[in-house]
């Protein structure tokens, strides 16, 4: 059963840095080299100096790990950071706008006892890659700090947990800061034993599904195993997480589109001919492709090249079950599974083991089409978003979606609170 607990979080000292605008940053895996430079120019204390970035080109990674350790230790010594003196959970709200609709996503930051993914009540929904895990493990080994929370979902149809949290969120938040995506982040503090115990008791029979941060969770688990036989309450046996109710009206999932490149013998005519085996094909154009795709809701894709645009609609669901007989109905119904199985692997004949040579990912549809127009990519596939109930069902089935199947928006900002894993 999931065991959550409060912890003495380490935070920026608000007496020295009352406005955190210039020191927070997006999670490491969202940060480009350009963003990294901008963050560093904002403040010598920007959190990017601790979490680094996933982009290694032009980076001396070993030196950066050591620099992150040095910065963390120096900033603690200089009281740029201060540790809370009581065991605390941190209500965390994010206010944002998508397609002119305003949302508030409500959650809280705490610790969870680590367990192997899929073997207990903490479930993954996406596959992971070895390189990001090795990178995060190196950073954790050297700094001994858990800098970024993993984003987990729980189910609470009666909104019981948020009801308990909201009682403590009526006062001015401990932190209120707006990020570079115009998302407002609010953080409160609950250090009273009774509400913490009530929440922990309510959630102890829950199933938690990882929304974002699979690599970071697996890294934390691997680190705890490397320590060997340590006390069960050793800090490394826990991971800092942010928990959000899967029923929360502020839970938004955006699609992640696929850009295709390096297909030397690609022919549009041959491609369309092969697609007719699986899809109904409707001509569209750049101005209408998103509207037409949205109208289809599911089992449909937009295809865009600089010459033409089409909507592809799956003819029959039976073909997926025939090709993936060992997979559940829920997996076979996923748009991303259909895309990868039929279009990327079958029609385009891209080996899943070589997918990184040919496929890149882009959140914005307009950005994806723009990158095709520049000639950097041959074409792109546009998708509708995965639904939250699909994420939950796939996880419960102990299955994993293809990488980048979900884009939970917004991301958890980095720099609000972190955790020391060294006793």
How do the strands and helices of this protein lay out in sequence?
Blueprint (H helix, E strand, L loop, with lengths): L3 E2 L4 E3 L20 H10 L5 H4 L9 H17 L3 E3 L6 E9 L2 E13 L8 E2 L6 H14 L1 E2 L3 E5 L5 H7 L8 E4 L5 E4 L5 H11 L4 E5 L1 H13 L11 E8 L6 E3 L2 E4 L7 H8 L3 E6 L4 H8 L3 E5 L4 E6 L3 H6 L5 H4 L2 H13 L7 H4 E4 L2 H9 L5 E4 L5 H9 L10 E3 L9 E2 L3
Parallel strand pairs: 6-11, 8-12
Antiparallel strand pairs: 1-5, 2-3, 4-5, 4-10, 5-12, 7-21, 8-11, 9-10, 13-20, 14-18, 14-19, 15-17, 16-17, 16-19
Helix pairs in contact: 3-4, 4-7, 5-6
Describe this structure in words.
The chain has helices at residues 33-42, 48-51, 61-77, 130-143, 160-166, 193-203, 214-226, 268-275, 289-296, 318-323, 329-332, 335-347, 355-358, 365-373, 388-396; strands at 4-5, 10-12, 81-83, 90-98, 101-113, 122-123, 145-146, 150-154, 175-178, 184-187, 208-212, 238-245, 252-254, 257-260, 279-284, 300-304, 309-314, 359-362, 379-382, 407-409, 419-420. The strands form five sheets. Strands 1, 4, 5, 6, 8, 9, 10, 11 and 12 form a nine-stranded mixed beta sheet that branches. The longest helix has 17 residues, at 61-77. The protein has 423 residues and is of the alpha+beta class. It is built from 15 helices and 21 strands. Strand 4 (90-98) and strand 5 form a beta hairpin. It folds into two domains: 4-252 and 409-420, Conserved hypothetical protein from pyrococcus furiosus pfu- 392566-001, ParB domain; 256-384, 2-Layer Sandwich (Conserved hypothetical protein from pyrococcus furiosus pfu- 392566-001, domain 2).
């Amino acid at each position: 059963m999931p065991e959550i607990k409060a912890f003495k979080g380490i935070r920026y000292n608000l007496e020295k840095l009352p406005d955190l605008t210039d020191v927070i940053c997006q999670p490491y895996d969202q940060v480009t080299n350009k963003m990294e430079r901008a963050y560093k120019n904002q403040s010598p204390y920007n959190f990017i100096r601790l979490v680094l970035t996933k982009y290694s080109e032009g980076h001396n990674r070993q030196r950066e790990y050591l620099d992150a350790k040095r910065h963390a230790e120096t900033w603690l010594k200089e009281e740029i950071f201060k540790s809370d003196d009581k065991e605390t959970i941190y209500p965390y709200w994010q206010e944002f706008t998508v397609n002119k609709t305003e949302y508030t996503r409500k959650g809280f930051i705490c610790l969870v006892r680590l367990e192997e993914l899929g073997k207990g009540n903490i479930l993954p929904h996406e596959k992971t890659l070895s390189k990001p895990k090795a990178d995060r493990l190196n950073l954790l080994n050297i700094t001994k700090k858990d800098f970024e929370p993993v984003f987990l979902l729980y189910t609470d149809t009666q909104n019981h947990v948020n009801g308990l949290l909201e009682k403590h969120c009526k006062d001015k938040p401990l932190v209120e800061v707006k990020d570079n995506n115009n998302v407002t982040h609010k953080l409160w503090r609950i250090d009273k034993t009774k509400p913490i115990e009530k929440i922990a008791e309510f959630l102890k029979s829950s199933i938690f599904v990882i929304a974002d941060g699979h690599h970071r969770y697996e890294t934390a688990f691997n680190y705890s195993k490397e320590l060997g036989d340590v006390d069960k309450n050793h800090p490394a046996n826990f991971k800092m997480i942010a928990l959000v109710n899967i029923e929360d009206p502020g839970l938004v999932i955006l699609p992640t589109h696929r850009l295709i490149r390096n297909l030397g013998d690609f022919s549009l005519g041959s491609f369309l001919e092969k697609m007719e085996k699986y899809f109904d094909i409707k001509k569209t154009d750049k101005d209408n492709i998103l509207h037409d795709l949205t109208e289809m809701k599911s089992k449909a894709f937009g295809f865009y090249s600089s010459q033409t645009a089409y909507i592809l609609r799956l003819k029959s669901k039976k073909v997926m079950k025939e090709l993936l007989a060992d997979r559940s109905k829920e997996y076979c119904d996923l748009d991303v599974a259909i895309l990868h199985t039929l279009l990327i692997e079958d029609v385009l004949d891209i080996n899943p083991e070589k997918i990184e040579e040919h496929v890149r990912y882009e959140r914005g549809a307009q950005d994806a089409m723009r990158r095709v127009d520049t000639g950097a990519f041959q074409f792109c596939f546009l998708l509708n978003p995965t639904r939250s109930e699909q994420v939950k069902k796939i996880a419960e089935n102990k299955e994993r979606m293809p990488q980048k199947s979900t884009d939970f928006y917004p991301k958890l900002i980095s720099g609000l609170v972190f955790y020391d894993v060294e006793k």
